[in-house]
Amino acid sequence: MIGFVARRAAVSVPRVLARRGYAEVASNSDKLRLSLVLPHDSAVQVVQAASETDERTCPLSAALPSRETLGARVEQIIYSSQDVVQVNLAAESGDLGVLANHVPSVEALKPGVLEVLEGVGESKKWFVSGGFANVHPNNSLTVNAVEAYPLDAFSPEAIRSGLAEAQRVAGGSGTEEEKAEAQIEVQVYEALQAALKA
User: Fold this and answer.
1) CB distance 4 to 111 below 8 Å
2) Residue 63 has what pLDDT?
3) How many beta carbons lie within 10 A of that of residue 75, not counting itself?
4) Which backbone phi and psi does 109 adopt, to 5 degrees?
5) pLDDT tens, position by position, 59-76
6) Residue among 138, 107, 114 nearest 31 (CA)
7) Are strands 140-145 and 32-37 parallel, antiparallel or unpaired?
8) What is the 3-state secondary structure (H, E, C) of 108-135?
9) Which CATH number fits domain 31-154: 3.20.20.70, 2.60.15.10, 2.60.120.620, 3.40.50.300?
10) What is the bridge-based pairing of β-strands 122-128 and 112-119?
């Protein structure tokens, strides 16, 4: 009896609900307005601070580009109500692809890639260490990220060595605070490593 009801229910689902698939190109009227904001220090300030502190204070400093490489091109507002086709992000609840007309929601972001599909064949990838994504009912998405860096700005070698060091500290005989910080570093480095391999 349950199988019959399940089959009947599946047949009666309107096809309109299934019309939008992953990375389906939206029409021009189906654009999503994206705002990507770094509410704290800009990446340039973070790199400057990292160069003046040790790796324990800023664990990603070894994997980040140098201050000279970044220059002044990284700003606190990366996107300001810019029309895009889709945004893919790593949320705590799972990977999420946001298109126009998405259900309003608030998502906590985990360390991972934020991919912005600006148009057909136009994609930009950022590594985000955490934050929140707010999907609004008016076809807009606001992302407040703790940190965001272009994915291609990271050195795979520096990530590998940083991960090894963080794993050593997490499994070592340090204080509970040092171990907890190292475990967070391990999560971020592993997410960075996976993002670069993808």
Assistant:
1) no
2) 55
3) 12
4) -95, 140
5) 555 555 554 444 444 447
6) 138
7) parallel
8) EECCEEEEEEEECCEEEEEEECCEEEEE
9) 2.60.15.10
10) antiparallel
- Listed residue (91, 109, 115, 87) closest to 99, CA to CA: 87
Predicted confidence at residue 197, as pLDDT, reads 86
Residue 173 pLDDT exceeds 60 = yes
Residues 97 and 80: their CA atoms lie apart, in Å, by: 19
Rounded to an integer, the average pLDDT of 2-25 is: 41
What distance in Å separates the CA atoms of residue 140 and residue 135, rounded to the nearest whole number? 6
CB 125 within 8 A of CB 114: yes
Please list, in sequence order, all residues whose beta carbon lies within 8 angstroms of the beta carbon of residue 41, skipping any fewer than 6 positions away: 49
114 residue type, one letter = L
- Count of CB atoms within 10 A of residue 176's CB? 7
Helix axes 176-197, 156-170, angle to 10 degrees: 150
Distance CA 26, CA 86 (A): 8
d(C-alpha 30, C-alpha 100), whole Å:
5
- Beta-strand relationship, 131-136 and 140-145: antiparallel
Burial 2-28 (b: 16+ CB within 10 A, else e): eeeeeeeeeeeeeeeeeeeeeeeebee
